[in-house]
Design brief:
This protein is mainly alpha-helical. Helices cover 41% and strands 0% of the residues.
Amino acid sequence: MLRLTLLAPDIVQGILDGRPQGSVMLPRLLAPFPADWAQQLHSLADPCASAGSA
């Protein structure tokens, strides 16, 4: 769960506003995701993006 603190601010704001974008769902967030915010926005917004680039 600590990894969720590394989410890009835009992603966190969307979740808090009840408007998650793309594939931002709990199962997807429990899988590895990039630490870089720009890469997060790209990979989490695209449901077909690879999750293995952590």
